[in-house]
Specification:
Elements: H1 2-15, H2 22-33, H3 41-54, E1 58-62, H4 68-76, E2 82-87, H5 93-102, E3 109-113, H6 116-119, E4 127-132, H7 139-149, E5 150-159, H8 179-194, E6 198-203, E7 209-214
Parallel strand pairs: 1-2, 1-4, 2-3, 4-5
Antiparallel strand pairs: 5-7, 6-7
Helix pairs in contact: 3-4
Protein backbone atom coordinates (compact mmCIF):
# COMPACT_ATOMS: atom_id res chain seq x y z
CA UNK A 1 0.00 0.00 0.00
CA UNK A 2 2.82 2.40 0.89
CA UNK A 3 4.49 1.76 -2.48
CA UNK A 4 1.28 2.57 -4.33
CA UNK A 5 0.96 5.81 -2.37
CA UNK A 6 4.56 6.76 -3.24
CA UNK A 7 3.93 6.05 -6.92
CA UNK A 8 0.75 8.13 -6.90
CA UNK A 9 2.56 10.98 -5.19
CA UNK A 10 5.32 10.85 -7.82
CA UNK A 11 2.74 10.98 -10.61
CA UNK A 12 0.96 13.90 -8.94
CA UNK A 13 4.16 15.86 -8.35
CA UNK A 14 5.34 15.26 -11.91
CA UNK A 15 1.96 16.41 -13.23
CA UNK A 16 2.65 19.85 -11.74
CA UNK A 17 5.98 20.19 -13.54
CA UNK A 18 6.11 22.72 -16.35
CA UNK A 19 8.47 20.51 -18.32
CA UNK A 20 11.63 21.25 -20.26
CA UNK A 21 12.14 22.93 -23.62
CA UNK A 22 10.79 20.86 -26.51
CA UNK A 23 14.21 19.69 -27.65
CA UNK A 24 14.94 18.22 -24.21
CA UNK A 25 11.57 16.49 -24.05
CA UNK A 26 12.26 14.92 -27.45
CA UNK A 27 15.77 13.88 -26.47
CA UNK A 28 14.51 12.33 -23.24
CA UNK A 29 11.91 10.28 -25.12
CA UNK A 30 14.48 9.10 -27.65
CA UNK A 31 16.86 8.05 -24.89
CA UNK A 32 14.18 6.19 -22.93
CA UNK A 33 12.92 4.45 -26.07
CA UNK A 34 16.48 3.34 -26.76
CA UNK A 35 17.04 2.03 -23.25
CA UNK A 36 19.54 4.77 -22.35
CA UNK A 37 19.36 5.82 -18.68
CA UNK A 38 17.99 9.34 -18.17
CA UNK A 39 17.58 11.21 -14.89
CA UNK A 40 14.00 10.98 -13.66
CA UNK A 41 11.54 13.87 -13.79
CA UNK A 42 11.72 14.38 -10.04
CA UNK A 43 15.51 14.56 -10.21
CA UNK A 44 15.36 17.03 -13.08
CA UNK A 45 13.14 19.27 -10.99
CA UNK A 46 15.53 19.02 -8.04
CA UNK A 47 18.51 19.92 -10.24
CA UNK A 48 16.70 22.98 -11.59
CA UNK A 49 15.98 24.15 -8.05
CA UNK A 50 19.52 23.54 -6.77
CA UNK A 51 21.05 25.30 -9.77
CA UNK A 52 18.76 28.28 -9.27
CA UNK A 53 19.77 28.43 -5.59
CA UNK A 54 23.49 27.81 -6.00
CA UNK A 55 24.08 29.69 -9.28
CA UNK A 56 27.41 27.95 -9.96
CA UNK A 57 29.93 29.39 -12.38
CA UNK A 58 31.35 25.95 -13.18
CA UNK A 59 29.68 22.52 -13.20
CA UNK A 60 31.33 19.11 -13.32
CA UNK A 61 29.35 16.02 -14.29
CA UNK A 62 30.69 12.50 -13.85
CA UNK A 63 28.74 10.32 -16.29
CA UNK A 64 27.49 11.88 -19.54
CA UNK A 65 25.60 9.05 -21.25
CA UNK A 66 24.13 10.73 -24.35
CA UNK A 67 24.27 14.21 -22.83
CA UNK A 68 20.72 14.74 -21.61
CA UNK A 69 21.56 15.76 -18.05
CA UNK A 70 24.39 18.09 -19.17
CA UNK A 71 22.01 19.76 -21.63
CA UNK A 72 19.34 19.98 -18.95
CA UNK A 73 21.76 21.67 -16.55
CA UNK A 74 22.91 24.04 -19.28
CA UNK A 75 19.34 25.28 -19.64
CA UNK A 76 18.96 26.17 -15.97
CA UNK A 77 22.49 27.17 -14.96
CA UNK A 78 23.38 30.88 -14.80
CA UNK A 79 24.44 32.58 -18.06
CA UNK A 80 28.09 31.96 -18.81
CA UNK A 81 28.28 28.81 -16.67
CA UNK A 82 30.86 26.30 -17.94
CA UNK A 83 29.98 22.60 -17.84
CA UNK A 84 32.55 19.79 -18.00
CA UNK A 85 31.24 16.26 -18.35
CA UNK A 86 33.10 12.91 -18.31
CA UNK A 87 32.11 9.74 -20.14
CA UNK A 88 34.07 6.51 -20.70
CA UNK A 89 31.48 4.37 -22.51
CA UNK A 90 32.65 4.62 -26.13
CA UNK A 91 29.30 3.73 -27.67
CA UNK A 92 27.58 6.74 -26.05
CA UNK A 93 30.25 9.38 -26.66
CA UNK A 94 29.40 10.03 -30.36
CA UNK A 95 25.72 10.54 -29.49
CA UNK A 96 26.60 13.00 -26.71
CA UNK A 97 28.91 14.95 -29.04
CA UNK A 98 26.24 15.09 -31.71
CA UNK A 99 23.60 16.26 -29.25
CA UNK A 100 25.81 19.06 -27.92
CA UNK A 101 26.53 20.17 -31.49
CA UNK A 102 22.93 19.84 -32.69
CA UNK A 103 21.57 21.98 -29.89
CA UNK A 104 24.29 24.62 -30.03
CA UNK A 105 25.89 23.80 -26.68
CA UNK A 106 29.46 23.09 -27.78
CA UNK A 107 30.56 26.46 -26.47
CA UNK A 108 29.45 25.82 -22.88
CA UNK A 109 29.73 22.02 -22.52
CA UNK A 110 33.12 20.28 -22.69
CA UNK A 111 33.09 16.49 -23.02
CA UNK A 112 36.12 14.63 -21.66
CA UNK A 113 36.46 11.07 -22.94
CA UNK A 114 37.80 8.37 -20.66
CA UNK A 115 37.62 6.90 -17.17
CA UNK A 116 36.84 9.47 -14.49
CA UNK A 117 39.38 7.74 -12.24
CA UNK A 118 42.08 8.82 -14.69
CA UNK A 119 40.62 12.23 -15.60
CA UNK A 120 39.61 13.65 -12.22
CA UNK A 121 43.16 13.91 -10.78
CA UNK A 122 44.17 16.08 -13.75
CA UNK A 123 41.34 18.58 -13.39
CA UNK A 124 41.74 21.94 -11.71
CA UNK A 125 38.91 23.19 -9.56
CA UNK A 126 37.03 24.63 -8.10
CA UNK A 127 33.56 23.66 -9.29
CA UNK A 128 30.50 25.11 -7.62
CA UNK A 129 28.30 22.14 -8.55
CA UNK A 130 29.24 18.50 -9.17
CA UNK A 131 26.71 15.95 -10.42
CA UNK A 132 27.69 12.31 -9.86
CA UNK A 133 25.80 9.94 -12.16
CA UNK A 134 28.36 7.34 -13.23
CA UNK A 135 28.96 3.70 -12.29
CA UNK A 136 27.42 3.39 -8.85
CA UNK A 137 30.16 1.12 -7.54
CA UNK A 138 32.74 3.85 -8.25
CA UNK A 139 31.21 6.72 -6.29
CA UNK A 140 33.30 5.95 -3.23
CA UNK A 141 36.46 5.69 -5.34
CA UNK A 142 35.77 9.08 -6.99
CA UNK A 143 34.91 10.89 -3.75
CA UNK A 144 38.39 12.11 -2.70
CA UNK A 145 39.02 13.84 -6.04
CA UNK A 146 35.46 15.11 -6.27
CA UNK A 147 35.78 16.60 -2.79
CA UNK A 148 39.08 18.25 -3.79
CA UNK A 149 37.47 19.82 -6.86
CA UNK A 150 34.35 21.08 -5.06
CA UNK A 151 34.56 24.69 -3.91
CA UNK A 152 33.69 25.60 -0.30
CA UNK A 153 29.94 26.10 -0.16
CA UNK A 154 29.57 24.10 -3.37
CA UNK A 155 27.05 21.31 -3.97
CA UNK A 156 27.73 17.65 -4.68
CA UNK A 157 24.64 15.86 -6.02
CA UNK A 158 24.85 12.05 -6.22
CA UNK A 159 22.11 10.26 -8.17
CA UNK A 160 20.64 6.74 -7.87
CA UNK A 161 21.94 6.20 -4.36
CA UNK A 162 18.98 4.12 -3.11
CA UNK A 163 19.18 1.61 -5.97
CA UNK A 164 15.46 0.99 -6.33
CA UNK A 165 15.15 0.35 -2.59
CA UNK A 166 17.73 -2.47 -2.63
CA UNK A 167 19.98 -0.38 -0.40
CA UNK A 168 17.66 -1.33 2.50
CA UNK A 169 18.27 -5.03 2.03
CA UNK A 170 20.92 -7.27 3.50
CA UNK A 171 23.76 -7.97 1.04
CA UNK A 172 22.54 -11.57 0.93
CA UNK A 173 19.09 -10.45 -0.19
CA UNK A 174 20.42 -8.87 -3.40
CA UNK A 175 21.69 -10.86 -6.37
CA UNK A 176 25.29 -12.01 -6.13
CA UNK A 177 26.38 -9.84 -9.07
CA UNK A 178 25.07 -6.70 -7.29
CA UNK A 179 26.59 -7.34 -3.87
CA UNK A 180 29.77 -5.37 -4.45
CA UNK A 181 27.87 -2.33 -5.74
CA UNK A 182 25.41 -2.67 -2.84
CA UNK A 183 28.23 -2.70 -0.28
CA UNK A 184 30.11 0.17 -1.90
CA UNK A 185 27.02 2.36 -2.11
CA UNK A 186 26.23 1.77 1.55
CA UNK A 187 29.82 2.72 2.38
CA UNK A 188 29.58 5.81 0.17
CA UNK A 189 26.41 6.98 1.90
CA UNK A 190 27.98 6.43 5.30
CA UNK A 191 31.08 8.35 4.22
CA UNK A 192 29.25 11.42 2.90
CA UNK A 193 26.95 11.50 5.94
CA UNK A 194 29.90 11.33 8.35
CA UNK A 195 32.48 13.30 6.38
CA UNK A 196 33.84 16.08 8.62
CA UNK A 197 33.61 18.69 5.87
CA UNK A 198 30.34 17.73 4.16
CA UNK A 199 26.75 18.34 5.23
CA UNK A 200 24.56 15.78 3.48
CA UNK A 201 20.86 15.03 3.06
CA UNK A 202 19.74 11.78 1.43
CA UNK A 203 16.44 12.34 -0.33
CA UNK A 204 13.94 9.73 -1.59
CA UNK A 205 13.68 11.60 -4.91
CA UNK A 206 13.63 9.51 -8.08
CA UNK A 207 15.93 6.58 -7.33
CA UNK A 208 17.47 8.41 -4.39
CA UNK A 209 19.55 11.59 -4.46
CA UNK A 210 22.20 12.67 -1.96
CA UNK A 211 22.81 16.42 -1.73
CA UNK A 212 26.05 17.41 -0.01
CA UNK A 213 27.41 20.88 0.78
CA UNK A 214 31.13 21.41 1.34
CA UNK A 215 31.77 23.31 4.55
CA UNK A 216 33.59 26.62 4.23
CA UNK A 217 35.63 26.23 7.43
CA UNK A 218 36.62 23.66 9.97
CA UNK A 219 34.07 24.72 12.57
CA UNK A 220 31.11 23.01 10.99
CA UNK A 221 29.85 26.15 9.28
CA UNK A 222 28.63 26.01 5.72
Amino acid sequence: MAMKTEERLAVFINSLDGGNPAYLEGLEKTARDGGVPVIRKETQSLLRTLLAAGRPGRILEVGTATGFSALCMSEYAPPGCEITTIEKYEKRIPAAKENFKRFGKEGCITLLEGDAADILPGLAGPYGFIFMDAAKGQYLHFLPEVFRLLEPGGLLVSDNVLRGGDILESRYAVTRRDRTIHARMREYLYEIKHHPFLVTAILPVGDGVAVSVKKTDGNGCV
